[in-house]
Amino acid sequence: MSTLTLKGPYWVTVRQYRRTLWLVAGGVLLSLVSMVWLTYWDDQTVGTDLDTGHAILRVAMDWASTAMMVLPLFVGAFVAGPMVARELESGTYKLALTQSVSPARWLGSKLLTAGAVIVPATVVLIGVYRLGWGNVAGTWSYSWYEPGTYEATGPVLVAQVLLALALGALIGQLVRRTVTAMALTGLVTTLVLLVVGQLRWSLMPLQILSGPVTEGVTANVPASSWPGGYGLLTASGDRLPADACWQRTQEWGVCPPDLNVVGQYWEHHPASHHWPIQLIESGIHLALAALALYAAFRVLRARHP
Prior knowledge:
alpha+beta, 2 domains, 10 helices, 4 strands
């Protein structure tokens, strides 16, 4: 990354972490080249007995799914540790403050530099993932709602890394110990992402399908849909567990009269809900990021008025 047009603390930040910036750029480029080659290999062997290309692509996509899920943790840990806590722990930040640089500008330069690198890099990585996903989409473990695939195919991952960046800035100042700040940021970021992830499928109303009671009550929803709850419907509109009749008659599709079962229902999120849920969840992460960032600067101002 060129530092010719950067000035003041921005120039210092880029110079200070130039090796990391080059490492990020190299990793993104390597990911792009590798995915292009793997998808090309898969396309060339499709319909033949040589399915090695597709098998290796799936392995690579498994690794990519995991990497995209933990990317926010690495971002938060790096910001909290090397970028913030280490300078506070060693006292080197005082040098910047003696150069007519305010505390807010010192922290802001670090966060803006990190954001200016990680956001474009994340967008490119999402594109790289979607390139490979085009060859495996809809197959086992690669539906749009699967963990890893969901995060890596939309804007929610960008919002997650921004949240991790803000949490890193806050925790790095509160802890002021490099390793401890990195570990705590990783833990807090994980917990926040897990909590929001648990709320994900309640961000939009589920669509409900209904039908007659048939043998083998299953979540008979479109293959591309996220399957929710399912069970039996009574004449009064009450819902019963899917095995309510079987528990009484030991036969699927045969219900005792006193249950008044008239059909069954299935709840699901169709594939058309992918982008609305992504946008709503992204908004939640960005709101949390704004709160964490506000708190980070409040802490900074309190300690360095």
